[in-house]
Amino acid sequence: MNERPVILLNFANQQDAHLDLLKEESSRLNDILSIAHDQGSIELHREESVNVDQLLKAINRFKERIVVFHYAGHADGNSLHFDGQAAEAVGLAELLGQLPNLKFVFLNGCSTQAQVDYLLEKGVQAVIATSVAIEDNKALLFSETFYRALANRSTIDAAFQFAVAALRTRFGASFNARIFIQGETVDHSSEMPWGLFLNKDARPVLDWALPTNITPPVKSPEQIDYEVNTYMLDVFDEMCHYDPKLKPLAEDSFTGELDERLALALIIEHFPWPIGVQVRLLLSKESAIDELSMERLEQLLSTYIYTTQFLYYIALSQLWDEKRKSNIHVRPYLMDLLHHDDRSYQHFDYLKHFISIVKLLQDEGKALFVEEFADMQTAFEEKKELYDAYLYLESLRAKVRQQTPAQLAAEMPQLCADGEYFLSTILIKSAFLVNYDLLTIRDIRVISYRYQDPKFDHYIARLNAKVNDLAVSKALQARSYKDYANNASVILSRNMQDPKDFLNLSPFIIDKNAFGEGMTEDRATEQQLFTYAYREGEDFRYFSTIYSIYRVHERPKDQLTTASEQPVEARAGRDRRRRSSRNRRRNEEEPQSPLDILKELFSLFEEDLSR
Predict the structure, then answer these.
(1) pLDDT tens-digit profile of 355-400?
(2) Which of 108, 106, 84, 96 shows the shortest CA–CA distance to 60?
(3) Residue 47 pairs with which residues in a beta bridge?
(4) Which helix (H) or strand (E) holds 607?
(5) Higher model confidence: residue 167 or residue 313?
(6) Please, which pLDDT band fits residue 566 given cuts at 50, 70 and 90?
(7) Could you tell me how many helices (H) and strands (E) the chain has, helices first?
């Protein structure tokens, strides 16, 4: 197909049997899939209150291009109930069976499984349907979760399994669904309401995913004039807008002119660690990253992913805090990160989820901890520079996943130029972070003398990368405050001198050095900041932030999992204390492992946001 493939969404309600959430489903699916439409990878055609005539016109118009047919509304085993008239299942199956590029049919209505046999017999490759009556809220959640995963370029199989996991999380382990091969006996119990029914000759369709299309840049840099890191200087200009003290630091001491080398170093040092260390890799002169190469393209995307992940974890942390204070209604998809596995995390759209959380907080009247997030949301919804950068980088992300370096070689120079331009747009919009401190609190000790107010010594350090140094900050020393924060935490603060107003980013971002014994005495020699990547059963895997996200998954030593044994330093320290404490009882309970605490935090997070 030379033209864009079409997703055909059909919705039909009835006045005498109104489905209250049908319009909501239409709105949500349109919102989810409109980004792929804007990227140019699909064409989205939505019919609300559709009748049979409108349906036939749409099928005839897009016949060669329809890849997905979705119906939501009333149904039974013999028909779908459109506006004013029912469409007979046998005839509709014949029509859909004639669509040459149709990948699957999704029938989100009650008891539609009886229609599956007709569709498979007529050559439809896959059908998602129900075998029993479905509650509106479950029908909405299932379709929303499935299409959200599909929009993130999951395969049909992965998107279906993800939706099943989401409903099991929400409604309990008794809920289930599975894939049935044509001819298999179907489970009609209430615990198995959905099925993905597969034509016996169409197993490869399970691996189908939405196509990838690189959105043409609104402003395409002239390749002939492009040199690596050209656009990064624009980021420094924006940082100076938020912190004017930076500009003199980048001026040549003799000429007073801007020293580009110093300006780039200040970008690294004044972004929070997860962003700054990725920019540091991007600006490296010691490898192929300094050339128009696959390594550079991957590092551009790695910087984008870590930046948007960092923004997302900030917003998610505030959402958790606000949920504990008041009864905010949190849509289930905002907890999608709990269902990540080693495949789906590679597709996760951090920026879109970040925007959704910011919008929710503002709609609920909550004051944003990072006030500038409101400007980012506005800029995104205006669909101008920020939105264009997002579309391009997400589509480029998908393209790099799906194509080999050899396939990308001819367009590599332009991809690198465009990638840096749009990455710089994201970083420019994030430049306000220069006014926030990312801090690690390794330990807190109470200082309380007789008749004096207690003080709290925080072993605390700012988390910022240096151009030639990844060592732990030498500022790791006790700072006394009248109030206390949280032990073994990474926090975002507006003012390191008075961190009582802070946002705790645990368990999403952690400082591994805080898990060992004696780290307050500066025994840690290298910064070990990790961010949550994905889930493995009951455990959670983290990646180190000091490498490209495309490299770290190949380096087990730079990963951390809550299933790991405790660090050597912790075990050795405990053994020494046990030997020296003669009066310690043998059956005394061991201190709780920090890794177990992380698991408890995730469990608490899931419980809080689900209620």
Answers:
(1) 999 999 999 999 999 999 999 999 999 999 999 999 999 999 988 9
(2) 96
(3) 10
(4) helix 594-610
(5) 313
(6) very low
(7) 19, 18
The answer to whether 80 and 116 are in contact (CB under 8 A) is no
Structure token pair of residue 253: 């001491």
Residue 478's SS3 state is strand
Token digits for 418?
């465009």
Structure tokens at 437: 């401190």
Of residues 208, 195, 554, 493, the one with CA closest to residue 370: 493
User: How many Cα atoms within 13 Å fall on the side-chain side of residue 32?
Assistant: 24
User: In this structure, which amino acid lies at residue 214?
Assistant: I
Q: Tell me which residue has tokens 């367009």.
A: 411
User: What pLDDT digit, counting tens, does each position of 270-300 carry?
Assistant: 999 999 999 999 998 877 889 999 999 999 9
- Amino acid 581 reads S
DSSP string, 144-175: HHHHHHHHTT--HHHHHHHHHHHHHHHH-TT-
Strands 6-12 and 66-73: parallel
- Return d(Cα 109, Cα 463) in angstroms, integer: 52
pTM value? 0.84
**Ramachandran class of 229: left when φ > 0, alpha when ψ lies in -120 to 50, beta otherwise:** left
pLDDT in tens, 183-229: 887 766 655 578 899 999 999 999 999 987 765 555 555 555 788 99
If you average pLDDT over residues 520-534, what whole number do you get?
70
Is the per-residue pLDDT at 122 higher than 90? Answer: yes
Tokens of 28: 């949500």
What letter represents residue 270's amino acid? H
What's CA 266's distance to the chain center, in Å?
Answer: 28
Q: How far apart are CA 168 and CA 172, in angstroms?
A: 5
User: Above 70 in pLDDT, residue 521?
Assistant: no
Chain-wide mean pLDDT for the chain?
84
The encoded tokens of residue 588 equal: 């005394």
**Angle, nearest 10°, between helix axes 350-363 and 385-402?**
140
Strand stretches in 219-264, DSSP E: none
CB 424 within 8 A of CB 406: no
Name the β-bridge partners of 88. Answer: 79
Q: Where are the alpha helices (DSSP H) in 326-438?
A: 350-363, 373-381, 385-402, 405-408, 412-429
Of 53, 116, 60, nearest to 83 (Cα)?
53
Answer yes or no: are the C-beta atoms of 420 and 392 closer than 8 Å. Answer: no
pLDDT tens digit sequence for 184-197: 877 666 555 788 99
The dihedral built from the CA positions of residue 277, 278, 284 and 288, taken in this order, carries a sign that is positive
Percent above pLDDT 70 for the chain: 84
Read off the tokens for 284.
């490296």
Residues 6+ apart with CB under 8 A from 149: 158, 159, 162, 163, 344, 347
| pLDDT, mean of residues 242-253 | 92
